[in-house]
Please model this.
Amino acid sequence: MTPPRQRPPFAADERTQLLGWFDMQRAIIHMKCEGLSDADAHRSLLPASPLMTMAGIVSHLRWTEQTWFEVLFLGRPADGPQFSEDPEDADMMAEGIPLAQLLADYDRQCRISDEIIAAHAHALDETGRHPDFTSARASLRWMLLHMTEETARHAGHMDIIRELLDGSKGYY
Model:
């Protein structure tokens, strides 16, 4: 089931608005995948960016959530394909993984991220803990803003890819 797409209230505290926009962008990722076949989810349309598929983007977003909230913010080990230099963009490699599994993995990672964010409910100024990455110096607020931007940017890519795949378009 696709998560609801709801904008945050016009007048709300910072945290409610930050999380509201972030959740909405995550829901749009799901919406863009509705009714898509596995073949189309893995179909590459951009010759210079063969991993930029619907499946590849979902995989990338899953690993990006893990990077920012588990690794950089909490300081957990830097595990996952996104830390591999060879091959480049390994976090977008989704060949043979059904779209439903990729979306379930993304959902699971979003829940982990949400638990981390909730545990630091009053700590938007708290910075990350990983000693090996300069990016860990960012505050939780910065990470939330960045992940909203990252997710929205890829939702825009998905808008274009989906329209090229089957003509589907739409925001709400």
Remarks:
- The two ends are 15 Å apart (CA to CA).
